[in-house]
């Protein structure tokens, strides 16, 4: 069965859906969320970047909604959506609702859980196969790559291993 031939994404595993939506830059994270059964809403959320929460009234077929701070820049909103998708996929059985503050921290969650959500968000927005494709095309400037993937230059440099989140060298291979 080909995924493009159907809109019934419920027939597919999350990994298959993610792979489908992460073939070309930039990744359409809103359509990805919807294919996973999540509804995405933008609204003013003081001191909160985003959250994923059970929402039987307005949620997608999963019964969950992602709320993202409408006042944040586009690249940040995209990362927040990917981060909340990650919480939904990886952690919803531990805790049904996640509210991430400006530093992507949820009350009651360990740094390891947040780091896991950040890693999956990076995998969604900056898939290694797209990065390799850009490198093969001669695009090796992190700022240009960031622009094509619609992520921040800082996120791209971290993903490429040019620096770590804590500003130390951490080379990575693609």
Summarize the model shown:
With 174 residues, the chain is of the alpha+beta class. The chain has helices spanning 14-21, 29-35, 74-91, 111-125, 128-136, 142-149, 153-160, and strands at 38-43, 48-54, 64-69, 98-101. A four-stranded mixed beta sheet has the order 1-3-2-4.
Task: Describe the model.
- By secondary structure, the chain is of the alpha+beta class.
- It has 7 helices and 4 strands, in the order H-H-E-E-E-H-E-H-H-H-H.
- It has helices at residues 14-21, 29-35, 74-91, 111-125, 128-136, 142-149, 153-160; strands spanning 38-43, 48-54, 64-69, 98-101.
- Strands 1-3-2-4 form a 4-stranded mixed sheet.
- Helix 3 (74-91) crosses helix 4 (111-125) and helix 6 packs across helix 7 (153-160).
- The radius of gyration is 16 Å and the shape is globular.
List keywords for this structure.
174 residues, alpha+beta, Arc Repressor Mutant, subunit A, four-stranded mixed beta sheet, 7 helices, 4 strands, disordered N terminus, disordered C terminus
The percentage helix is 40-55%
Spatial order of the strands in the main sheet?
1-3-2-4
Please tell me how large the radius of gyration is.
Answer: 16 Å
Shape: globular
The fold-level CATH name of the domain at 14-126 is Arc Repressor Mutant, subunit A
The run of helices and strands is HHEEEHEHHHH
Proportion of residues in β-strands = 5-15%
Poorly predicted spans: 1-6, 167-174
Main sheet properties: 4 strands, mixed
Distance between the termini: 30 Å
Give the overall average pLDDT. 85
Q: Work out the helix count.
A: 7
CATH architecture of the domain at 14-126: Orthogonal Bundle
The total count of strands amounts to 4
Indicate the CATH class of the domain at 14-126: Mainly Alpha
Structural class comes to alpha+beta
């Amino acid at each position: 069965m080909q995924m493009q031939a159907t809109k019934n994404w419920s027939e597919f595993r999350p990994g298959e859906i993610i792979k489908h939506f992460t073939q070309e830059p930039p990744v359409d994270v809103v359509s990805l969320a919807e294919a996973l059964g999540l509804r995405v809403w933008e609204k003013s959320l003081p001191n909160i970047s985003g959250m994923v929460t059970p929402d039987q009234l307005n949620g997608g077929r999963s019964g969950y909604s992602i709320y993202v701070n409408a006042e944040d820049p586009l690249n940040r909103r995209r990362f927040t959506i990917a981060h909340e998708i990650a919480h939904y996929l990886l952690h919803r059985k531990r805790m049904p609702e996640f509210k991430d503050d400006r530093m992507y921290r949820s009350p009651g969650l360990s740094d390891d859980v947040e780091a896991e959500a950040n890693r999956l968000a990076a995998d969604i927005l900056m898939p290694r196969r797209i990065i390799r494709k850009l490198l093969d095309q001669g695009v090796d400037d992190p700022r240009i790559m960031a622009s094509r993937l619609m992520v921040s230059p800082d996120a791209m440099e971290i993903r490429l291993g040019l620096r770590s989140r804590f500003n130390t060298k951490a080379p990575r291979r693609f």
